[in-house]
Amino acid sequence: WYAVALLLPAMLALLTGFANMALGAAAPGLAEVTWSGLLAVFAVRLVNPMDGPLGEEPGFRGYAVPLLQARWTPLRSAALLGVVVSLWHLPLVLFGQLSLIGLPTTFAITFLYVWLFNRTGGSVLLTFLFHNSQGTFTVGSFGFSGAEADRAELIYFAVVVLAVLTTVLLDRGAWRAAPASAIDSVLLRSGSDPIHR
């Protein structure tokens, strides 16, 4: 699961980048990517409280997912959280730091976070590493520009949706019921029985 958390985001970015290059896009930034640069970015993101992983994972996966899963299935919980996470990222669109296609992509990738969280028994650490990896080697690392960059974002959205559909189709059990360790036990002890709708 550590390999999934660390490598799946890079695989999604690589699939996107190479698909875009196959369609004729130039990738000038790829030649400038170095292992030392990637490790430096990864390390800074591990400890930067103003960055996404450290600022978001305790709340979204550490608090919200167990709370949602005490009432609903993982699939419905992921959909509900996906809406919240997308709204959370809306200011980035308004300030030009995220494109509009970034919102449905954010919604879709939330399903992968919930899947990983549940498959690792409710590990926030693994979703934190997934998030950190997702922001370390990105589609932006290819250096696409103009229409090619826009196309890359659409391809990335399609690749993420394909990854989500793969987990839903090939790992159906993971979407029907969350493991006990990934459900809010405080809510259950208070007398609210889980209603998996």
Question: Number of helical runs?
Answer: 9
Strand portion: under 5%
Low-pLDDT regions? none
Most strands sheet: none
The secondary structure category is mainly alpha
Q: What distance separates the N and C termini?
A: 28 Å
Number of strands: 0
What is the average of the pLDDT values?
91
The H-and-E topology, N to C, reads as: HHHHHHHHH
Describe the structure.
The protein is mainly alpha-helical. The protein contains nine helices and no strands. Helix 4 (74-94) runs antiparallel to helix 5.
Describe the secondary-structure layout.
Layout: H1 2-22, H2 35-47, H3 52-69, H4 74-94, H5 102-119, H6 124-136, H7 146-170, H8 172-176, H9 185-189
Helix pairs in contact: 1-6, 1-7, 2-6, 3-4, 3-6, 4-5, 5-6, 5-7
Outline of the structure:
By secondary structure, the protein is mainly alpha-helical. Helices cover 71% and strands 0% of the residues. The mean pLDDT is 91.
List keywords for this structure.
9 helices, mainly alpha, globular, 197 residues
